[in-house]
Every structure is written in C-alpha cells, then in structure tokens.
Amino acid sequence: MEIKNVVVAGGGVLGSQIAFQAAYCGFNVTIWLRSEGSIGRTRPKLDNLKKEYIETINLMATKEGQTPQVWANGIADFDTFDKDECLLKVENAYNSIKLELDMKKAVSDCDLVIESMAEDSEQKIKFYKKLAPLMPEKTILVTNSSTLLPSKFAKYTGRPEKYLSLHFANHIWTNNTAEIMSQPKTDSKYFDLIMDFATQIRMVALPVKKEKSGYLLNSMLVPLLCSGMDLYVNEISDPESIDKAWKLGTGAPKGPFEILDIVGLTTAYNIVKMYVKIPSFLAPYNFKGMEKMLKQYIDAGKLGVSSGEGFYKYK
Considering the chain, what percentage of its residues have pLDDT values greater than 70? Predict the structure, then answer.
C-alpha cells in the first residue's frame, strides 16, 4: 500500500505542523476542521509556519546555520541541501494544503488520517464514532495523542487492526522525531507502513515496543513540566526563576514554562485534569492547584505562543 493522501484532523499547534511537514515532503494534505472559527485560527498558524520554514532555510544557507544546533534535518540533509529547491517546496506546501469542514469529503479518498485533537477522551471518542463509517476501507488511522493510550479508543475506530499512535515533538522540522506505538490489535504490517511514512516525511522513526502513556519523550517531559508548575502554584518561586534554574543548571535551551507556552496551555490543562483524577503519581504534586492556575490563564486568553501571551509575552 502506498500512502499518498493524508488528512490531519485538527489544526492546532502540532496538527498544523504535521500537515505542513507532510505537504513539504510531497503528500496531498487536507486539514479537517470543526468550524469556520477553526479555519480562522488555523490559517495564521500555516502563515507562520511558512515564515518559519523560510527563515530556517535562509539561516541554513549561512555559515552560522550550518551547525548541528541550528540545522533542521526535517527540511534537508546537510550534504544535499539546495536552498532554492527547499524554498520551492515550502511554497508548494503552503499553496497545496486544503482546509475542509465536511468530514466525509475530507476523508473520501484518504490513505491516512492523523488525529491531532485535544487531549480529551470524550472528544476523541465522539470524533472516532463519527469518522469510522466515512473512511474508505484502505485508510489507516493514527492518533497523535501525547498521553492517552490508543487501546482506549481502538474499539471506536471501526478498524482496530489499522489503528495506532504516531506522536511528534513540537517544532517538527527541527525536532524531527516520530514515536510509533501500536496497541494490542494493531496489525504489524500497518505498524511497518507508519514507520516508513514517518521516514518519508523526514522524521527519525522511533518504535515504542510496549504501549506506554507518554511514549518516550513525554514520559520524561511531563514530569519536568509538572514539577515546574508545582513549584509555581505552591508559591516556591516564579516561572522566570524556575526556567533559569533549569536552563543554567542543565544547559537546556528552554525551561518548563517556556516549553509550556510553546506546547499550549490548553493542552497542558487537559493533561493536568487527567492527573487530578489519579490518586497517586510520580510525586505528590499539587495538580488541583495547577488545574486552577492554568484555567485562569486560559480564561484570560493567555494560551501561550499561539495567542501572543502565556507565562511570557510574545510579539
């Protein structure tokens, strides 16, 4: 089976990045969105991605950009880099991505659907139930969920043998990893197909051998973010100082609150809500305090980088 037509369900931070990267690599890409309002929120993300890809490519063409710290392997290999060719691929990707509100029309001939919706179990189940009868028999379905296990949703997909997880890191063109995780009913041949697809969109395909909430990256990242928020809501320190402690102490480029702004506070809020319901976790964190704090930011329209302000302000 050849994957050619890709539908990304959801135009959020990662959904828009996945769509742009797949289109950049030559796939026919449609983003399915719930409403006209969603289109209004997604178009600026695509505009910004076009700008970021162009800026990155221009930087890669300079001496300063030809270092491992700057080079974007999701865009090109160092030995075969062609600036003009890459810029043309960006233009083609931007112009070719379709935004569609009609789910049936969006998936009518798709080979792969990538679900990239909020970390909300009820929303995902509702989506899968609506999607299941509309997909062609050939279609493979994957979830980009960062914390929820695919086995929880397999029975709602109508094709559990063709359903698995495909998770990306933020800033997909530079942090070009893709974690591929099956659930007990996934047919191995579809796991292999998704591993190959990840490679085709210039990702480093990382197999996750056992179903694990958080996969590889978020199993390490979520405790960091929660520990940072715990220090803040318990009034131990402020976000800027906590970030400085992490960056200066480890050499990391960003601290937990800078990462939260990039990921988006709505995503963080949905994850924290799940942990509020769990009586025991890695540490006795104040999840209720985190939930209350994040909701206050969200209610104030401070969603992170995407809205221009989160824990920090952005131009």
Answer: 98
